[in-house]
Design brief:
8 helices; globular; alpha/beta; 7-stranded parallel sheet; single chain; 17% strand; Rossmann fold; 7 strands
């Protein structure tokens, strides 16, 4: 079985950053299982694109904010691993799925807070925990944070606080999973042009100009600026990078 391809699980892989990560992983010769919450057609289109490039891929429905659904998800995942990939394990977990809610601290509702916490922190915590029996020793876990955990932009306080928790969690995961030779890192994108958070960075010209003006490289980020970094962290060359926060923001707010 030494010829077995390596497999990555990318949550929220149907569009935006997750899609870009999935495609870059495939370019590196890694097979991909991606999850989608509601956009099944978009997810299947990404699967097709990966298959056309010569790699194997599959898509599974998952709401990463609903911990009670995880056991059923992993039962489905085991079937897909067996039927599509002829294996019972995978190598790389990329905790990418997320939502954006823009609200001041004074106006953030408990419902908004819970939605952010369930998807960005609690979901990541327990999805990773429940992945452990299926991840190969020597695998990798990549969590997603944000530049907003380092600098403050009013309106993102609750979201950024969840990501701050993820950054601390990443170090603990690296420490505890090190016994199995699993490296854990966190990627912190800057502002990126996607449909995230209603597409504000992409569609709001004023915000776009502002971000470009505080970024050393003079523009806002694109999905293609992120996917390759995630794929690199899953290569042999990156095996000694562990417990690191890697900000991929073009040098925002330096």
């Amino acid at each position: 079985m030494s010829t077995q391809s390596k497999i990555a699980l990318v949550t929220g892989g149907s569009r935006g950053l997750g899609k870009n990560m999935a495609l870059h992983l495939a370019q590196k010769g890694i097979d991909v299982i991606l999850t989608y919450n509601s956009k099944k057609d978009e997810a299947l289109a990404v699967v097709k694109e990966i298959e056309n490039s010569g790699r194997k891929a599959a898509a599974l429905q998952l709401n990463t904010g609903e911990v009670s659904s995880f056991d059923a998800f992993f039962e489905e995942m085991k079937k897909v691993l067996k039927n599509t990939f002829n294996t019972d394990r995978f190598n790389f977990l990329i905790n990418n799925a997320g939502i954006g809610i823009h609200a001041s601290l004074a106006e953030t509702t408990e419902e908004q807070f819970d939605a952010l916490m369930n998807i960005h922190f609690k979901g990541v915590f327990f999805l990773t925990q429940k992945s452990l029996p299926l991840i190969h020793d020597g695998g990798r876990i990549i969590n997603l944070s944000t530049g907003l955990a380092r600098f403050s932009l009013p309106g993102y306080g609750a979201y950024a606080a969840m990501k701050g928790a993820i950054e601390t969690l990443t170090k603990y995961q690296a420490k505890e999973f090190g016994a199995r030779n699993i490296a854990v890192n966190v990627i912190a994108p800057g502002a990126i042009e996607t449909d995230f958070g209603g597409g504000a960075v992409r569609d709001n010209a004023q915000l776009n100009q502002y971000v470009a003006s505080v970024t050393a490289l003079g523009r806002v980020g694109l999905p293609d600026d992120i996917g390759g970094v995630v794929a690199f962290l899953c290569t042999e060359e990156a095996k000694w990078i562990n417990a690191q926060r890697i900000e991929v923001s073009g040098g925002m707010n330096l």
